[in-house]
Amino acid sequence: MIKPVYVYGSPVLRKVSTEITSDYPNLKELIESMFETMDGSEGVGLAAPQIGLSIRLFVIDTALFGEDHPEVKGFKKVFINPKIIERSEVQNIYNEGCLSIPSLREDVERPESVTIKYFDENFVEHEEFYDGIIARVIQHEYDHLEGILFTDRVSPIRRQLLKSKLNAIVKGKFNVSYKVKIA
To answer: For labelling alongside 160, which of 17, 106, 121, 169 has CA 20 to 30 A away?
Structure first.
């Protein structure tokens, strides 16, 4: 079932999420709904806070990046209770967008690679290294679990320049083809 995406200004997007256990109610259905919502919104990642749940869960499917980044074709995963345990010192810049901040894209600097511990949808624990675009998507979604948005990672001057656009989003002044929930 496709869920509405909570947009900028929604308090749930600023909360630090809590861990869940394998007996979390309807977890399988929730994960399916998250993939459906992400696909229906033409996203490559979706964190639980973006659908109003302050839990440590996000999903990624990089199919939309397949043409520009063939190395990520077929990457589709569930991350439960993730913990980034290492970030590279080398940084890179990439133009990011977010389903919760419609019609806005900005260059964001992030570590080039990460090592992350997490549980998959079957609650099997993994520790994996990622770099490139997948590391970027992981960090973007991980930030959602920490109550951080990509606009928090741009320079203070740039943030000031974005203020009117962000205020417009809070007021519902944007146009998207997917269901949204405004605070």
So the answer is: 17
